[in-house]
Every structure is written in C-alpha cells, then in structure tokens.
C-alpha cells in the first residue's frame, strides 16, 4: 500500500497514530461536553459549556462545541412564553421608574428587583415570589404561597431577603405595578428599611427584564421539567434549584461567567481591600 501511494512506511504509521489520537481527543471532548450538559440538568448551551471547558483548561472554541453538540444531538429545551402574573389594575399609588433599566450595581444591597410567577402543583396553582440583587444576580429572597396576598408573597420574600443580606440605606427596590408591591403594608416595610421604591412603566416588561429573565430561566430549567404532586415535593425541587444550583453553581453572563455566590465573594473582597 505504501508503494501504491508512494509514502514511506514510517510516514504511513505516523498518519495512523495521528488519526487514532485525533479520534480519541474528539471522544474525550464529547464525553466532557455530555458531562457538563448533564451536570447542568441539560440546561447549558454551547456558550456556557465552552466557558466551563475553558475554565477546566480545555482550549476549545464555541463553534467546535456547538458542532459536537449538534453531531451528538445534544439540545437544550426552549423556553415557553412568559406571562404577566401580578394584578396591576388597582387604585394604589404608582412609584416612578427610578431604575430606568439601569440593571447594574456596584455593590450588594444597592438595587433589588422582584416579580411573582405561578406554577402548578397537582391541580392547584401556587405562586413563587423572588427578589434578586442586581450586583451579583443572587436570589436573596424567595417564597412559595397558595395565595397572592402581599403578606404571603412580597412581604414574606422581602423579610427573608433582609435576613440574609441587609439592604444599604436608600436601596432601590424595583418591581412591576402589581398590587402586592403597591399596597400600604409593603410600602411601609420598604420605608422601615429606608428603601426607595421604583416601578415599571405600564405594560412594559423590559423595565423589569432581570426579574422576568430569572422566571423564564427557572421555568425552562426547573418548573416545566417536573410534574409536582404535592407542595413539599415542589418546595424541595425549587429549593435545590435556587440554592443548590442557580445561586451557587450556575454560570451567569452578567457576572462575567461567575455564579452569583462567586460574584458576591469577589465584590465583598474588593470592598474589604478598599
């Protein structure tokens, strides 16, 4: 065969060895891609998988990862359309849009955003309220309730948030115009902590994009992947997702690829150094 193709025997065997090594390298990369994809509960696309590989010292491009994922038919489930859930038709006072889509914060406790969504448990609807710190995208407070009263949703979530991360003076708290945020009891609670209230413009979801993006993510990666048979099961799964994955391990693009907990650690270290 070497005589037919006019190549040396040593050159032919070097080519065979290179072909074997290349195939083995591809198999190793495919396995690592599959492992990271599975560890993310099958939620990571090629950008996050590429970043995770790079952090492990694997020098690979996003286009290569995307190509290997396509070849192995590794696909992320697409998000369903997000729906508005809070009741904004009321006679309560509406706070101005002080946030004005400025979703950055230089330190924790300066800007929080919040929203409410719903999910099904057996044949009943439950409500998930979440509060997110814009400095690191950490979900600082969240609660699950059977009813949409302010006491069980916004007030309870806020109390849990301040228990783990006290807000700074004049902190900006942003939400939509829902009555749970506009009611007197919640406004009094904000005033107790010297917070400034901000609300989105009417029918403008982009004014609260970070909170709505979080709910889109948790629905795609968690809520829509399970059939909850009782509230204890639902709480356990949501707790593991938020506290065991989203806050502590999930790569977040707004944090430069760091999970919220790691970004918080970086911010507090910078503050200490200053």
Description of the molecule:
The radius of gyration is 24 Å and the shape is globular. It has a 5-stranded mixed β-sheet, with helices on both faces. It has helices at residues 2-5, 9-39, 46-55, 62-71, 154-164, 179-182, 184-192, 209-221, 231-246, 260-273, and strands at residues 111-121, 124-133, 138-145, 172-175, 196-199. A hairpin with a 4-residue loop joins strand 2 and strand 3. The chain is α/β, with parallel strands linked by helices. The model has no long low-confidence stretch (mean pLDDT 87). The protein contains 10 helices and 5 strands, in the order ααααβββαβααβααα. Helix content is 45%, strand content 14%.
User: Could you state the oligomeric state of the chains shown?
Assistant: single chain
Distance between the termini: 71 Å
What is the chain-wise order of helices and strands?
HHHHEEEHEHHEHHH
Mean pLDDT equals: 87
Q: How many strand segments?
A: 5
Strands in their spatial order, largest beta sheet? 3-2-1-4-5
User: Low-confidence parts lasting 5 or more residues at pLDDT below 50?
Assistant: none
Structural class by SSE content: alpha/beta
Helix run count: 10
What is the percent of helical residues?
40-55%
Report the sheet-strand fraction: 5-15%
Shape: globular
Largest sheet: 5 strands, mixed
Radius of gyration: 24 Å
